[in-house]
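Handoff note, outgoing to incoming analyst
You'll be picking up this chain. Sequence as last confirmed:
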Amino acid sequence: MDITTTLLIYTSILGFILGYVVNKTNFCTMGAVSDLVNIGDSSRLKAWLLAITTAIVGVTSLEYLGIVDVSESRIPYRNSVLFWPRYIIGGIMFGIGMTLASGCGNKILIRIGGGNLKSIFVLLIAGLMALLMTRTDFYGLIFHSWMSPISPDLAKLGIPDQSVQTIFSSLTNIDAGNILITIFIPLLICVFLLKYIFSSYTSLSSDNILSGVVVGLVVTFAWLISGGELGQAWIENNDFLDTPYPSVGVQSFTFINPMGEVLIYTSSVFDNFYLTFGVTALISTIVGSFVYSLISNNLRIEWFVNKHDFFRHFIGAVLIGIGGVLSLGCTIGQGVSGVSTLAIGSIITLLSIIFGASLMMKIEYYKAVYEESSFIELLKNALIDLKVLPGKLRTLEKI
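Most recent structure output, in case you need it:
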């Protein structure tokens, strides 16, 4: 068995576990934001934060032991150029999109495994938008042309990359290899996260804890597979091929760009040359969800209920595909995998996704009560609720 096949088998096992457990425990990042915004319940948000904490501990351990260097990741989370416009705009677009499309990239796969045909449609549209962003000049013309000039290169300031550890090291003149930098800072961040997560233990169910830990471990082991000894052999072997395989490199789970890759894979009549790490993770996550749906007798076929439902999901899929690529990842790709590297851009993206989703949820909530109000009025009052605008501008009673 060759290296690539071995690596993809391990990847598929991780994807299967992710799909199975996420379906079983109802782990949902959009649901986490919805619960917090609409009913003030932070349980699923804490599960998401537990996944992030677990992944940070995992990545910190792997890097400290010299097993993996995530600074070499194929998605440049720790790039020295801080592309703040793409993190913010892409994150907000993705957050709005996942609200309209009834789920983030990961949840779309879980829904497909559960029989939701609407999510297959969302995957196809989001995949096409991902290809538009990565395989054409669309990104360069629409975004990069003006975002790049206003994005600072930290390397010119003597800061090699945008990780929290590196920035702290550069600002304090403490050697980057010092244990204070490599271990203490990441673990201190984890302590603060855990303090919040378990500040009210009764609000976390066993499913919340299980899903958070499993998602974090899946992301960690994906880093280990692609960046450890096997992964390095995979990368080196690929470098010597006359026709290298696409998308080879140190990476963890992310789902938006792979939605585009899976369209290439299927259009090539399942040519294994296009069976990438991301495609394998995506397909196996669907399979894991499907198996749980069968075992639990929860397989339900769903389709659009009306034209409004169709166009809502269509717009959401477009925003997910463009926003997800623009921000370099989804709620898993940036919200867990990216944040596990403690890259500032990933943290900005995570906050932007949450803001975008919260904003869209607030707008829809107001729309349901004040049907005759204009979009501008709904937007204004939603922004007031999110404390972006002052309360004196309020024109609708808070709900």
